[in-house]
Design brief:
Length: about 350
């Protein structure tokens, strides 16, 4: 993949950004209302699918993979909505284009950070495999090697990824982008901005959850106050409350990770490590064998989960990149447009 302290944080950098777009100044036809209602109903349903039935599901790799899948679907929905609106690119306000391009490049940065962390976590699987292989032998010499591998795994897993540490700044910037651009006398524009607001809230929230999970800290969690006037507000708030609270409680209890599969492996390693460090003659063979087998199964589940989640993150990267490329292609086809990103004008080009 290549690209081009307080957990209860609330951001209002430009006044209150969490307001419903007023329909004053333009008339929404029944067709536009139906398009918007359908989009928001689907968004609400996808948010409900992510509300865990029990706490054990929160921050499992399968839950995180589902979150990425549903996030991809929501971003595809916004592309469908734009098509349904039949809003020519020439009618797009320049600030909408600025906002989209700026947000997309930040999301690509976050995807790259997440992918690097998933790859780093999966690298530890090799150390576990080496340790478990050595433990299949009764040789004291092999036990010493297994201890070294397990020690290396623990140090590797407890280290921090500098790319993840930078996600907090990116997320803060994305929160600022939640402020909705003003739309004058354009019913279609109002529909587009309201739909994009829902996409942005869901995206920023899930990215903050992933960043908190990978960073080992609840400081990157975001608490967003969405107005009840949005039809998807209630499922979003329910999801945000249950997930954020569980992450916060988990870290406050001193656990180094909220990833359930990783925690399972770590708990088994903590059993193995002291067992093979002592007098080798006193090690009971059968209990050790069972623990080694259980650790092997847990390690395989962790590795498979990391691989599946990495694919989900890559799929999201491709969805964001494809949307960005499509917009830039249409800009090039239509007319030369100067876009302002991060305070400086740049020429955006696509190479066929």
């Amino acid at each position: 993949m290549s690209r081009p302290q307080d957990p209860h944080r609330s951001f209002f950098p430009f006044g209150n950004p969490f307001r419903k777009i007023s329909p004053k100044g333009s008339h929404m036809s029944p067709q536009l209302v139906a398009i918007l209602n359908s989009f928001e109903a689907t968004l609400a349903e996808r948010l409900r699918k992510l509300i865990p039935k029990n706490k054990d599901e929160i921050l499992s790799l399968s839950w995180m993979t589902l979150a990425m899948e549903l996030l991809c679907e929501t971003h595809n929905d916004i592309k469908t909505l734009i098509t349904d609106l039949d809003l020519p690119l020439s009618n797009w306000d320049e600030k909408w284009i600025d906002m989209y391009l700026d947000i997309s490049v930040k999301l690509l940065d976050i995807c790259i950070a997440f992918s690097s962390e998933l790859s780093r976590l999966n690298q530890g699987h090799l150390l576990l495999q080496c340790a478990l292989h050595n433990l299949s032998s009764a040789s004291p010499k092999q036990f010493v090697r297994a201890c070294s591998s397990l020690d290396g795994w623990r140090q590797h897993i407890n280290s921090r990824n500098p790319r993840i540490e930078k996600c907090g700044t990116i997320l803060d910037n994305l929160v600022g982008s939640l402020n909705l651009p003003k739309v004058k006398n354009s019913a279609k524009g109002k529909v587009l901005m309201q739909a994009m607001y829902g996409v942005k809230v869901k995206t920023v929230f899930l990215c903050s959850v992933f960043a908190a999970a990978f960073s080992g800290s609840a400081k990157k969690l975001l608490y967003m106050d969405v107005a009840d006037t949005y039809s998807w507000a209630q499922p979003f708030k329910s999801l945000q409350n249950v997930v954020n609270e569980e992450i916060r409680v988990t870290y406050s209890n001193g656990r180094f990770t909220v990833l359930t599969e990783l925690e399972t492996v770590d708990a088994l390693v903590k059993i193995l490590y002291p067992t093979i460090q002592g007098d080798q003659d006193s090690v009971e063979t059968e209990p050790l064998r069972k623990t080694v087998e259980e650790t092997g199964r847990a390690a395989e589940r962790l590795s498979r989960g990391l691989d599946q989640l990495a694919k989900g993150v890559d799929d999201f990267f491709q969805v964001v990149l494809a949307g960005r490329d499509a917009l830039l292609y249409n800009l090039r086809k239509g007319a030369t447009v100067s876009v302002r990103i991060s305070g400086s004008n740049i020429a955006e080009q696509i190479v066929d």
